[in-house]
Amino acid sequence: MKRPVFSALVISLLSGGCGVREIRWEDVRIAEVRALDAEFEVLGTLADGRTIKALTAALARAERLPDPASPHSWTHKIDIVGEKRVAGRWLYDVATGDLRRLEIAQSTVFRLDDNDRRTFEARLKIEATPASI
Questions:
Q1: How many helices (H) and strands (E) does the chain have?
Q2: How far is CA 78 from CA 9, 37, 86, 93, in A?
Q3: How far apart are CA 9 and CA 33, in angstroms?
Q4: Quick one: CA dihedral 61, 114, 64, 104, positive or negative?
Q5: Under a CB-based contact definition with an 8 Å cutoff, are residues 98 and 110 in contact?
Q6: pLDDT digit of tens for each residue in the chain (133 aa)?
């Protein structure tokens, strides 16, 4: 393998190479979204196409934070069932509205705006508790 190709592969893998940074949420197919609390109890589930479309639209509008290594208090887990590029466990911070894919490498943090955050939390039955803030 030529050195530049190998270097690009290593950099891609170390930077979370799944393509989440460049994702176009409007084009993503998601079958189901589940919210879990700190004890892994399911709080709410979304499976309705219209509601999932609203969620992907909110994620498309979300601010991409430049420093994914900044400190967070991840309070909830979000499981996404769908296309491989977005499927899996995500972490959610109820205090900030930040959402990040759980990966070994750092991944992009998506910050929902206040309106989208309230809607997202209401639909998935996520509540801020003293223990989660």
A1: 3, 7
A2: 28, 9, 11, 10
A3: 31
A4: negative
A5: yes
A6: 444 433 232 333 333 334 444 678 888 899 999 999 989 999 999 999 999 999 999 999 999 887 666 777 889 999 999 988 889 999 999 988 999 998 877 788 899 999 999 998 999 989 876 454 3
